[in-house]
Amino acid sequence: MITATLAAVGLVGACDLQNIAELEPGVSTEADVREKFGQPEAVWDGADGAQVYEYNRQPEGVVNYMITIGADGVLVKVAQVLNEETFAQVQPGMAMEQVRRLLGKPRKVQTYALSGETHQDWRFQPKGGTEPMLFSVAFNRDLRVIKTGTMPDPDLQKR
């Protein structure tokens, strides 16, 4: 079962890599991005009138793309945000909305009534790793980050 899941993730990833290779910052347009990736999961306001399109590959994928379109409608950059460098930007006190904007929609959300905590998880592939891992963020009742961590994906451990 793990092999089938990882193979499906690989197929989605291969299509994404091909689509990204066919886009050129400074040349490709918003229409080109939508043709390759479809409707974004969310659209965020960026700097100087830009828009950031979120293309989410959770729950089974290990990537989330943030694609920036300039105010002129031309592609600025494509970023895969589920990586250690982006995770390091998640700091205690950040609002849940800031984390969502940084990492994209999480794979899983779990709220614990007694503690008032909400935990969000994103599946990712560590640099140099062979097995997907989870990056987890815990939020307090005020929906502010209280802690983060990485761990093996328990869903893959069960299979």
From TrEMBL:
Task: Give a Pfam family name.
Answer: BamE
What organism does the record attribute this protein to? Hydrogenophaga crocea
Q: Which Gene3D superfamilies match?
A: 3.30.1450.10
CC per GO annotation: outer membrane
* Swiss-Prot/TrEMBL keywords: Membrane, Signal
This protein is called Outer membrane protein assembly factor BamE
Keyword Signal assigned: yes
Report the residue ranges that make up the Outer membrane protein assembly factor BamE domain in this protein: 81-111
